[in-house]
Design brief:
By secondary structure, the chain is α/β, with parallel strands linked by helices. The protein contains 17 helices and 15 strands. Helix 6 links the parallel strand 4 and strand 5. Helix 1 packs across helix 3 and helix 8 crosses helix 15.
Length: about 425
């Protein structure tokens, strides 16, 4: 137990710590890859003297990443990346049992979130772990004098990577950044299987609806969209996909889904799930033509995918029907049901991704931070993807933890793959 009187933090209730520790230890049982990295870090201390500011979903899985950084010698502080994703008991345990400063309260308002972003930057971080790139954007826009102190950043989300690449294009990226979400052992599994399962879990917890037989409209067919479409079909839904990318649209068609524009899907959908990383992909014109009691939710990072401001203006009466379900009655008399206030439904109404898939995602994060520290001053101010050998290392460790063995190339096979002189 840490000395609480010397630790600054802002959480809901320190007395929730015991329940939080149970959750953290439960998740750790399903995170063997990260645990193996943590044991190495504890011996090697790669982050000794390094200050880290982490902005992430404060969940039991993230707690094990935070533990890994601290045991590697880091002076780390953690803030929430989303106001509805914080698990208050986990936040309490991180403070009380692991001595990690946490500034996160489930349901915190925007002003509190922005205050916490600035508290994280007051930590004068050498490394930023971001989830949506708000911390990186804030230090760039509001604290340019601190940029030179930053060794680099890591980014967990597609949305955040889009922002980082825009910053790089505009010459505003002041340090190297690892696009962790672009690692194969992240987006292939976290985005597809993690988001797919946890999103439908959030929908069911919020509504207790039967998915079978419903028209489920998946807005966006990236890796998250693929996962949501796969899981919705597995539960018996008639899946419709909307897309702007013709290649992804063809893929959705060949995967067996109906593809159409949103203005055609809106009148027939029963359940809408947005996973695009863009804004207002469901807008006021769509709300007008939806079925009465159509259910709308978002599993993209920010709460801009659904035009909630526009919907609120159209709303004659708003009523909370269940904990994470609000009914918006429109002037026409029809109602639109919104889950989790339009924020990440898998974290607002459920628990987010299972620990076993976050094991690989956070292994990527831990190794990305290590790479930034080891390569301090050697990388340009660009967005990078972790080397393929890191992906291979993580995948190998994961397979070993699952008791799965695979074949190994013979010398003859290696020679064939690396030679241009050997033909058929």
């Amino acid at each position: 137990m840490t000395e609480l009187t010397k630790l600054k933090y802002e959480i809901k209730d320190i007395n929730l710590a015991e329940a939080g520790k149970n959750q953290i230890e439960w998740a750790n049982k399903d995170m063997p890859v990260l645990e193996s990295i943590r044991k190495r870090f504890a011996k090697e201390q790669p982050f000794k003297g390094i200050r880290i500011a982490a902005c992430s979903h404060v969940t039991k899985e993230t707690a094990n990443l935070a533990r890994t950084l601290k045991e590697g010698g880091a002076d780390a502080v953690l803030i929430a990346s989303n106001p509805l994703s914080t698990q208050d008991d986990v936040a309490a345990s991180l403070v009380k049992d692991y001595g990690i400063p946490v500034f996160a309260i489930k349901g915190e308002d925007t002003a509190t979130y922005l205050k916490h972003v600035n508290i994280a930057l007051d930590h004068r971080p050498h490394v930023i772990i971001d989830d949506g790139s708000d911390v990186v954007a804030t230090i760039t826009k509001e604290r340019p004098e601190q940029v030179k102190e930053v060794i680099g950043s890591t980014e967990e989300t597609t949305t955040g990577i889009v922002r980082l690449k825009a910053m790089e294009k505009d010459g505003m990226l002041g340090f190297p950044a690892y696009a962790v979400n672009d690692s194969q052992t992240k987006h292939f599994f976290d985005n597809r299987y993690g988001t797919g399962q946890s999103t439908l879990d959030g929908v069911i917890r919020a509504t207790n609806m039967l998915i079978a037989g419903k028209n489920a409209v998946i807005v966006g067919y990236g890796w998250c969209g693929k996962g949501c479409a796969m899981r919705a079909r597995g539960l018996g839904a008639n899946v419709i996909v909307t897309e702007v990318d013709p290649i992804k649209a063809i893929e959705a068609v060949l995967d067996g889904f109906r593809v159409m524009p949103m203005n055609e899907a809106a009148p027939i959908g029963d359940l809408f799930i947005t996973v695009t990383g863009n804004r207002h992909v469901i807008n006021t014109e769509h709300f007008k033509i939806m079925k009465d009691h159509a259910i709308v939710c978002n599993s993209g990072h920010f709460d801009l995918e659904i035009d909630m401001a526009g919907l609120n203006k159209m709303t004659k009466e708003k009523k909370k029907i269940r904990t994470f379900l609000d009914r918006h009655t429109l002037e026409s008399g029809k109602s639109v049901l919104v889950l989790g206030e339009g924020r990440l439904v898998n974290l607002a109404a459920a628990e987010g991704h299972p620990a076993s898939v976050m094991d690989m995602s956070f292994a990527n994060q831990a190794l990305a931070v290590e790479s930034l520290v080891l390569n301090k001053g050697k990388l340009e101010n660009k967005v990078y993807v972790l080397p393929e050998e890191v992906d291979q290392q993580i995948a190998t460790l994961k397979l070993e933890s699952m008791g799965v063995k695979i074949d190994v190339l013979t010398p003859e096979m290696n020679e064939y793959l690396n030679s241009w002189t050997i033909g058929t």
